[in-house]
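Repro:
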Amino acid sequence: MSRRTLGITVRRWAAAAVMGTLLAGCGSAADSAKGGAEDGAKAGAKTEVKVEPITAARSVTDAKGVTVTTKAPPQRVVCLVALCDDMLAELGMTPAATNSKLLAHPKFLGKEKAAKVPVVPGGFLAPEAEAILSYKPDLVIGLEDTHGKLAPALKGATVFWPVQPNSWEDSVGYLRDLAALTGHTRQGEAAEKAFRAKLARAESAKSDKTALIIFGSDENFGVATPGNDVAAGLFPKIAHYPWKSRGVDGTYSMEEILAADVDVMFVETLSFGGPSDGKLSDKLAKNPLWSRIPAVKNGDVHEVDSEVWAKGRGTRSLGIVLDEATAALK
């Protein structure tokens, strides 16, 4: 297997762990160009801080056209994707069960309280339907590309909501919809307002530095791009972020990263079910070009929590991303 083929394989598995799909959202070259234009327009648009009231409802239709209906406000929610955990935390709720490690973060429940939340057997990629139903959920939230196949097994026993966030606007929309379903409208409005205010402050003090987010589990790495990565979608608003999606078989080389004069780099070390076997930045240091990147030479490489940066995707996680990113970009 060639190094290029190996790199593509690893990136696909990395994307599966981080985004819940094998590089889903990466389309044709035309799609990528269109996405780049849209990202540029969004980067130039000022974030609206005003929050519209949320009305409690028994049925909502999300931005992707999925209609979700519950007989009563959901109280027992099983989370198969970290966005669900994030939203519940923002609404002052705790999942009946989860397969995410996000809640262990100190700005969520913390390790001690998170350890009390049951873990869904089967992991992120293959959660067990029978186990999910054993928690007696009145709502199950999963990632469409990864968990959509569970829908037939859950039908009739609970309500399944497939989500697929591609931008922070998507995440806010999902939060508002869940707030409406659960009746936690005041908490939803407060969380949205806090995030919008934080993003507006960050973009008003936009850095002129060039930033980069990379992810991986070994020296084969991927570049997080707007449209494919929710956190990366924030960066054109707060810094110079020239990275665009290149589709399934495209990536950036170390030579291209060197040529871009990256000032500040954020590194997400991924693990696949077990403990990480070392920082990605340490492994990339084996590449002779690594030490020549300005961010590396100036000590501006930041290993970040992939549970928050790559997997969280909700307003609380993205708020943490903004806090850490803006501090590093000053």
